[in-house]
Amino acid sequence: MFNRNKVLAVLAAALFVVSIGISQETEKQSQDITKNWENFLHYTVISNLDLAKSYARAILENNPDPVQLHTLSRENTTGYQILLRAADNKYDTELAGLSQKLLNLIEEGGYIRRSDSDVIFQEVQRLSSDTQRGKLNAIERLKSAGEYAIPFMLNALGDPDREGEFVNIAGALPQIGRDAIRPLAAAMQTENAAVKSEIIKAMGGIRYPQSLPYLKYVIENEESADLRQSAEASIRKIDPAALNVSAAQLFYQLAENYYDHAQSLAPAEDAPTANVWFWDSEKNQLTREPVNKAYFYELMAMRNCEWALKADESFGSAIGLWLAGYFKAESAGIESMPKYFGESHASALVYATTAGVEYLHQALARAVKDSNTHVALGVIEALNKTAGEKSLFYRLGTEQPLVQALEFKDRLVRYSAAIAIASALPQENFEESKLVAATLAEALASNSQTTVSDALIWNENIANSYALRTATVMLGLAQTRNSVIDLSLAQTALINATGDERKEMQVLAAQTLSYLKSPAAQGSIVTMALDTTNELDVRISAFNSLTNSAKLNASMLSDDMINRIYELISSNETDANLRSSAAAAFGALNLPSRKAKDLILDQAKG
């Protein structure tokens, strides 16, 4: 008969045995890691590096617990210094590589330990311990947790059922230090006046400039006189001069510091990602969005620009910096922006093309100053799409950012700037017009060869794109008879392009040359038209360009070239379409009647 209780007892016993086995195996693994760690340090110190490396490999192959390694390193600070030196060993790359892997695991263990929500929750409770030692230990562990401790501490401050803990938690809040500021700043949006008051006091207690714009924003916008006074008191502890600066300006300055990757604003090194903090007004609590460190600074620069505009909607400088920050963020090469942007969030170029010219030039001036190719290219592309002549030559003080871009170290920016200016078909003379023509010539002749100044990968596709864009814009200048940008300065490059391997380049070059009053220009078109190695449609197009050149400039050809065209026309072996286009060009040259007479008589029957 089936005995359910006996079966359950057997299963429980079996599970107990298995759990003991797992526990013993885990304990053995932990002991092995500890022993291997000690041996690694010992043999590293006595310079027996082969044995040291073998123990390092044993640790790594044993699937070590990062938290255990972190604990071992904390317990033996001298050993940790030995590991750091081993990772920097320039004479034994294998030892250095193994040591670096151990360091990475130790950092991972530190991150896991300090961000453990269960541990943080318990330490917040221990702040109200009956013993002073218990409180001090809790504070130290919460300081180690840094920004991760703040949501738990603020939740406790705002919980009516934990009112008895309020004083102890509020007292510990400023002791968390600088890492607390980003989540505290986001939490300034709370509607709980008591919690907000403690946040303001904590910022003053931490005494770090990053808090200043948020505190000044309270002074400018908070209805509560008590909170405004508290914010003023905190600012006086950090930097009293900030009281005379607007919140918008302070946010803008902080945004610039983020944009410039100020080391003082760096995210935690041991974490795999960085955190952007938000206030959830519905849940009345902090939330965080982990983001890639590759664009963390740029995202924070953008957020502070947004706050600058919230503080003062007329603070236009924040728009230019926001655009620069967005282009710079995109340059990190991350496939998508963080989730908080939303799926339908537009690209930087979309925002740039809808922004005013003033803001685009602000972003471009910053890119030129910083030699940032990605930002400069993005802004110039937006200017090229939307700006006219006057907009392109916009001045910021005494500077013209787009003109300055003509001397940028990276050729892509120089070429893009020249193309943008030429595309606007400028009508008023400017000093750098010759530089534009020279840059267009350089771009037209560009090839796939890279140079040390190229910040981006320069390859054949990019070279082709710029060369063809340049040829197209040069034709536009020629067709409109633009007198500002002298294309004769690019004549050599255009003539060389008629012999290019790319058909489109040949055709565009010949069409442009047809507008130049130059024997060399007209002669190169004929050479292209007569070259039998060129495809038939290219030769026909060349004769069409010769027709245009002849109409505009009359004949500037040598007798030899004229005779060769005549021979082509008079030959019965010439393709009918080619013969027709050659004849039209010949007629447009308006030559003396003798050649026309010979052509007629040569075909006449006795």
| Strand arrangement in the largest pleated sheet | 1-2
Percent in helix: 55-70%
The CATH topology label of one domain is Leucine-rich Repeat Variant
Determine Rg (CA atoms, Å). Answer: 37 Å
Question: Outline, from the CA principal axes?
Answer: elongated
Question: Helix/strand-derived class?
Answer: mainly alpha
Q: End-to-end distance, in Å?
A: 129 Å
Tally of alpha and pi helices: 31
Unreliable stretches = none
Mean pLDDT: 89
CATH homologous superfamily assignment of one domain = Leucine-rich Repeat Variant
Tell me what you see in this structure.
With 606 residues, the protein is mainly α. Among the domains are: 23-114; 124-245, Leucine-rich Repeat Variant (Alpha Horseshoe), CATH 1.25.10; 502-606, no CATH class. It has 31 helices and two strands. It has a two-stranded antiparallel ribbon. Strand 1 (274-280) and strand 2 form a beta hairpin. It is elongated and about 120 Å long. The termini are far apart.
Notable traits:
single chain; 606 residues; mainly alpha; Leucine-rich Repeat Variant; two-stranded antiparallel sheet; 31 helices; 2 strands; elongated
